[in-house]
Amino acid sequence: MSTEREAIAEAPASTSGLAGPRFRPGESAFRWMLFACLAIGIVFLGVLLTYVLVEAWPRLDSRLWTNFPSIRRPERAGAQSAISGTIWVIAFTGLFCLPVGIMAAIYLEEYADPDRWYNRLIELNIQNLAAVPSIIYGILGLGLLARQLGLGTTVLTASLTLSLLVLPVVIIASREAIRAVPQSIRQASLALGATQWQTIRRQVLPAAVPGIATGSILALSRAIGEAAPVILLGAVTYVAFNPEGLDSAYTVLPVQIYGWISQSREEFHHLAAAAIVILLVLLLLMNAAAIWLRNRYSKRW
Amino acid sequence: MKNTIASSRRKTIGAAALFLAAALPLSACGGSAGAESQQQDLSGTVKVDGSSTVAPLTTAAAEFYAEEEPEVRVTVGTSGTGGGFEKFCNGETDISDASRPIEDDEKSACRKNGVTYGALTVANDALTVVVNKDADWVDCLTTAQLKKIWEPGSTVDNWNQVDAQFPDESLKLFGPGTDSGTFDYFTEEINGEEGASRTDYSPSEDDNVIVQGVAGSPGGMGYFGYTYFEENQDELKALQINSGKGCVAPGAKTAQDGTYTPLSRPLFIYPSKEALGRDEVLDFVQYYVDNNADIAKDARFIPLSSRQAQQLTSDFDQLKP
After folding, report:
1. B19 and A91: CB-CB below 8 Å?
2. CATH number for the segment(s) B40-124+266-319
3. What is the pTM of this model?
4. Which CDD domains match (chain A) (predicted)?
């Protein structure tokens, strides 16, 4: 430290910064600190994955997706109803929330006048909604959809509630993607005589697809791991059948995992770990799809 | 330009369709298994929710019943007795599992929504406090002594602190983990609050570990479900419990007649009369009632006494539409 100060004192201030490689403890310490911050996350993830895999190993076989849950015979229990329930619920969540979310984003980006107070109010509320805890959406779904509207605790209620839950995220991600399309593209399209709708449909949306798809899939990945809202909405721990329709009873993986972990017998803990692995695989598949879509369709101007 | 955009859109839609299609094959293969039953073909869904203590019993019933009527779908939730009654009185479930009788505010909620019901006692639950087989100094403890040992913050670590007449023998405690219904029940009855317990004991989710631990230490003590003691009675000694009316030994008989207090209790299911109007619910409860001894045994509860079983049959007959 003292040698450095002497060096600075000797040399003119302007050249010291441009001087060649010299030992700067502050620089490298900062760099190592950044690396350590990254390492904390990675190490914990590694430990978590290893732990889950080790716990799951004895039960990570086809019984998991060919069999239904069983309290009487844990060695024959599986999670087929939870896996298919999760796919049903998430598929319909996507079906409900993606069109609505993307269209809302188009309105806000392309049509809404940002100076109007009501548009600003809507924007502010969407930002706030994205931060509301998921259990609140569960209570809303139970009170409004399941009870008031009489939809009951079904696949439909769960999908609609999860749609509401991830809608703000879909809207925000889609807006970002639409905003990233250069203004010049729109102006060129309009100048050539296209209407606003034609411009959006033929120029803006196709260019924004990678961003919208990535954001939407990440939003659905969030929905897939939710246990809190669906536990209020009738996803129970013993459901030994797959959903057959929107009005069917169902269960999902996070709830099934929760149910097994709260069992006192050791076999169920392995089963829970194995179900966690399945859930992670589903999540990884969805995230891989997001990355693939982004790379496949991304466009540079 | 136009061409490439159009084709890229088609691919996106294709990817979305692929994702949706993944849902279908899984759903197709579940229902058909074992549909060739000769009996009348019942179908429909029976929704059960409530006590997590009773859930293993009802789930066992549902699993047995699925072999008889594979098309009837029984779902069992574990919202707790109170949470179960809330849904039940709202007409959202057909049957409520309960480890205590329905309370007054729950009754009025049911009345308000026009849900009528009956209580059926389907099994008995009992806990056993065990000590080492060679612990000849103790046969019976009062509930106050148990509380002194197990309450939160307790520092009792020697038998002579429980009672001055007991020998100088260090007390080693074993018990179930906090996830277990046994833990909830014991802490509620002995310490007066569910989940309140001293924490410096050796917890295990595996009853076998408790058996081994108590059998292996001269001053050991532990607790678990009575049926588990029955299977291991050669290795351990069960304590009698004095809750103010003298010492009572745990057993099927004292649990069934309700004298082994406070560590035994009846378990209930509450079917709603409205739901019993549906054939699949009626048939499931009928099956539950007819086979209650096998179901209780399988789920490791104490079956009903013959008097309790008669009571159950007559209660159910009154409840039937």
Report:
1. yes
2. 3.40.190.10
3. 0.78
4. TM_PBP2
